[in-house]
Design a protein that fits this description.
three-stranded antiparallel beta sheet, Rossmann fold, alpha/beta, N-utilizing Substance Protein B Homolog, Chain A, 11 strands
Length: about 400
């Protein structure tokens, strides 16, 4: 019981950080760092699945609680209800364990303790009636906030928007690259794999492997990899025989890139500097994986829909345009520039490239062919750019949403 309580306390702290402070899940690992691996995994599962199914759980709880308790008096009462309902309906925790765990969690909080009778009554009702309610819900729509749903319907049409949202209901599989080819493996702790410790593979989503391939044959050539951390694309390019210069401004992320390259025993020149300040001799190949809202990675980061907004898209798109200008100056005459983002938002992808090409007449688009993306013509949009969606490759668990454009600079 104590171990279960500690795991739930950690999950509650993580969930509160996300919902109240808009912190990413990855930024709150300290809450579970003191737990045994099994309990830490349970805490992350509760927090992650509660966020993945937040819209459904919120609608369910609102339907069962006629008058929600005032936040300033209730403390984490609502979060405890959401977590408890998630355990009951999506994590297959036994009803007595889930309800008792929520009651103990409330008992340990100065404010939530006063709402323990409410928590107990609501979760017992969820245990009896919740599955029936969940079965009638439009999960894809409820678990997608309005700001994203309206954007995706406008950009892709309602059928595709629904396909994207439905793909987000399942966790992404772990995709590994082993210096030869990507592969899908359903494992939880990649560190335990023998090939990982010996430096034969790294973690990288299938969609994230595609931008580097768009450069073509880079063996022996200079390639500049911008915004390079955590290093999947750097490793790809080095494994392909390129002479890679990787630029990353964030010191912590650069340290991770450095560790990954050392483990993989791959070579690259690593520059810990802002792309806008870097002075690099123009190269025949440049890859910019630009900062973005990362809405193409919601399967891996279920908190994103609830901590970001449409204003974030505008803000990040402006910064990305500046980096694209810098990348263009690093591209040698006749060279290729690949711009990529793990975003589903038009402003961060195709609209970014349209504006860039209007302002930079020395560049032209080089449309993709099916052979550039391993025969997957469905990955190529009407303009000839890469556009993967989470609902693509559903037979192997889907993939991240990525956009990439291949541009050539005139001689």
């Amino acid at each position: 019981m104590t171990a279960g309580l500690n795991a739930r306390k950690a999950a509650l702290a993580i969930l509160s950080d996300v919902l109240r402070k808009r912190r990413p899940l990855d930024a709150a690992p300290e809450h579970a760092s003191h737990l045994e691996p099994r309990d830490a995994g349970f805490a992350r599962a509760i927090a992650g699945e509660t966020l993945r199914r937040f819209g459904q759980l919120d609608a369910l709880i609102r339907g069962f609680v006629a008058k929600p308790p005032p936040p300033h008096k209730a403390g984490p009462t609502i979060e405890i209800l959401l977590m408890g309902a998630c355990e009951l309906l999506f994590l297959s925790v036994a009803p007595h364990a889930a309800v008792d765990g929520a009651n103990r969690l409330a008992q340990s909080d100065d404010k939530a303790v006063h709402f323990k009778p409410l928590i107990n009554a609501v979760l017992r009702r969820v245990a009896r009636e919740g599955a029936g309610v969940i079965a009638t819900q439009d999960a894809a729509r409820l678990d997608t906030p309005d700001w994203l749903w309206s954007r995706w319907v406008a950009a892709y049409g309602e059928e595709t928007a629904r396909g994207i949202a439905h793909a987000h209901l399942a966790q992404a599989p772990l995709t590994l690259v082993d210096k030869a080819a990507p592969r899908f493996d359903a494992v939880r702790r990649v560190e335990a794999l023998p090939d990982f410790s010996t430096g034969e593979l790294w973690v990288q989503d299938a969609a994230a492997t595609l931008p580097a391939h768009l450069l073509g044959d880079v063996k022996g050539a200079r390639v500049v990899d911008l915004c390079a951390a955590p290093g999947g694309k750097t490793a790809q390019l080095a494994a392909m025989g390129a002479q890679v210069t990787a630029v990353e401004r964030d010191e912590a992320r650069m340290a991770r890139l450095r560790e990954n390259m050392a483990r993989l025993e791959l070579d690259a020149a690593l520059i810990n500097e802002d792309v806008r300040d870097a002075r690099i001799e123009p190269a025949p190949f440049v890859l910019l994986d630009a900062p973005c809202t990362a809405t193409g990675t919601i399967r891996r980061h279920p908190e994103l829909p609830w901590i970001k907004s449409a204003s974030d898209v505008t803000l990040v798109a402006g910064a990305s345009a500046e980096l694209l200008d810098c990348a263009s100056a690093m591209t040698a005459p006749g060279g290729l520039l690949v711009f990529a983002v793990c975003s589903l938002e038009p402003e961060e992808g195709p609209e970014q490239i349209a504006s860039f090409l209007d302002a930079h007449r020395e560049f032209e688009r080089v449309p993709l062919k099916p052979e550039d993306v391993f025969g997957h013509a469905e990955f190529i949009d009407a303009s000839g750019d890469l556009r993967t969606l989470p609902c693509h490759m559903a037979e192997v668990g889907g993939m991240d949403g990525f956009y990439a454009a291949r541009l050539r600079r005139a001689l």
